[in-house]
Model the fold of this input.
Amino acid sequence: MPMFEQEYEVFLEAQRRSATGQRLEQLNKDLTGEKKLLKEVIWPVLKSFDGLIMEYELISSTGVKIYVDVFYEPLGIAFECEGFVVHAEKITRDRFIFERMRIRTIAMYGYKYIPFGWDELDKRAEACRRSVYELIGRFSSTAGSALNDLTVSEREVLRYALRLNRPLRLKDACYCLQLRVTATRYVLIKLVEKKLIKPHNSGTKRIHEYTLEENAKRYML
Done:
C-alpha cells in the first residue's frame, strides 16, 4: 500500500509539528500498533487522514493524562490497538486498574471507545473494516438527510457508482470498499432491496452489473 505509506509519513510529521509536551513524547515513541490500526482498518474505510488525531490527549477526573491511539474527531471515536501480551497475558493489577480508568475517562468525555486486538488486525482485517463501516454508519448523524437510512458502505458504493458513468460491477464495489466478494455482495443485495440499484440485465440469472435507480441520486444531495 505505497500510497498509504506516503500519506502516513506526511500525516505523522504534521501531528508531531502540532504537538508539545507529553503528547509529542508519545508521538516520538514506537507507533507500530497505531500504524497497523490506521493501515489495516481506518485508512481503507475513511480513505484519508482528515479528522484523525494520533495520541489524542485527555485528562482524567484525577488529573492523570491519558492518550488515545487514534481519535476520529468528527464522530468522537476513540480507536485503540491492544496487544494480547501487554493488555491481557502479563497485565499487572495496577495496569488493569489504569486501563479501567482510561475507559471511564473516554466515556466521561462522551466519546465512543472502539478497541481492536493486534491479532484481529493481523488475521481478520476485513472483518475489522466491516465493523468500522457499520459503526461509522450508526454514529453518523446528518439530520434531515436521506443518508441516515444508509450504512457508510452503502453510501460509498452509491457515490462511487454515480462517478463511474457506467454500470457498476461487483469488482468496482470491492475496490471501493476494500472488502472481499462475499461482504461486498451483501452490501449490493441491501441496496437492491432498498431499490437504490438494480441489475443492469435483469433477464440473466447471474448479475454482473448494476445501475442506479432514479431515486438513488437524492441520497447524494
Notes: The chain has a mean pLDDT of 84. The CA atoms of residues 55 and 69 lie 5 Å apart. The chain has two domains: 2-139, 146-220. The beta strands are 52-59, 65-72, 77-82, 112-117, 168-169, 197-199, 209-212.
